[in-house]
Amino acid sequence: MARSNYEYPGYERSGAGYWTKTTLLYVLVTAGALWMTLPFWWTLTTSLSASPTAATVSFIPAEFTLDNFLTLWRRPDILLVRWFVNTVIFAVTVTAFNLTFDSLAGYALAKVDFWGRDKLFLGFISTMMIPGMVTLIPVYLILVELGWINTYQGLIAPLVAQPLGIFLLRQHFKSLPSALGDAAKIDGCNEFQTFYKIYLPLAKPALATLGIFTFMGAWNNFQWPLIIANDNEMYTLPIALFAVRNQYFAEWGLMMAAALIIVAPVIVAFLAAQNYFIRGMSLSGMKG
Fold first, then answer.
1. I need a labelling partner for 76 at 20 to 30 A (CA). Which of 1, 3, 91, 166 fits?
2. Do 77 and 100 lie in a common domain?
3. pLDDT, tens only, 226-260
4. What separation in angstroms does the CA of 74 have from each of 67, 68, 77, 80?
């Protein structure tokens, strides 16, 4: 029977040295957590303050108000609902496509035996070394020829699959026993049924990890929507924040309210799937 970490020689759980190290560790971790939380807290308090200025650094609102959020809602030139819907459509669709295509490719590269499989996987991984700026103009010109500029399909199509997601899921599927698939095939499952009914449910932690990474990347994506969306009604929230900053640069409460609206869904998504995220990060690191 395996021993607990506490049972190994030299591991002390009592005495002045143990409590000193433990206390110091908790103090450092708490200080680091508070330091990383301060920018978000300042954004929150500024958005809830009346008439804040750039020189004001207040961690408790001197005069609590929701006017900044109401102003974002009421001003006719700020299409908050439309921008929010655009961002949700963009982020959710990109995430769904990535989970679908990356899981299929990852399973094929891990469990399906075909000629050139490892070389194909190496080719996928090699594309991660190509800077995105190299392919930016060719992809844009292709979308121009297709007439997809300033459209949802133009925003989404270039991001429907990512080599990092294929690598992550391939490593996870590689760590799962092949005997599970062999047993399923003996019972009459075809290749897709083996993937969908056997391996995919076991990949939930890795899928959650990839989903969080993809959703956060799409939600916060600034460069690609800035290039494709040239109409105010096609803006996503990061582009909208940039436009609000240029137009209302002196209204810090308004800008911080817009920033809070952008970051809140990402925080909620991470908190909702954090257990799967931690498990996926550990499992995807197994040798394959």
1. 91
2. yes
3. 999 888 889 998 888 887 777 766 677 788 888 88
4. 10, 10, 9, 9
Same domain, yes or no: 94 and 205 = yes
> How far is Cα of residue 15 from the mean position of the Cα atoms in its chain?
43
Enumerate the β-bridge partners of residue 64.
Answer: 49
Contact in structure between 102 and 169 (CB atoms under 8 Å): yes
Structural domain harbouring 87:
72-283
For 209, the enclosing helix (H) or strand (E) is helix 204-219
Are 47 and 85 part of one and the same domain?
no
Chain Cα centroid distance, residue 8: 39
* Displacement of CA 124 from its chain's centroid (Å): 21
Question: Terminal CA-to-CA distance of the chain, rounded, Å?
Answer: 26
Q: Does the predicted model carry a pTM greater than 0.85? A: no
* Domain boundary pick from 47, 65, 83: 65
Q: Are residues 180 and 43 in the same domain?
A: no
Tokens of 244: 């609000």
What secondary structure letter does DSSP report for 199? Answer: I
> Cα torsion at 186, 192, 197, 198 (round to 10°)?
60
Burial group, residue 31, by CB count within 10 angstroms (0-12, 13-18, 19+): exposed
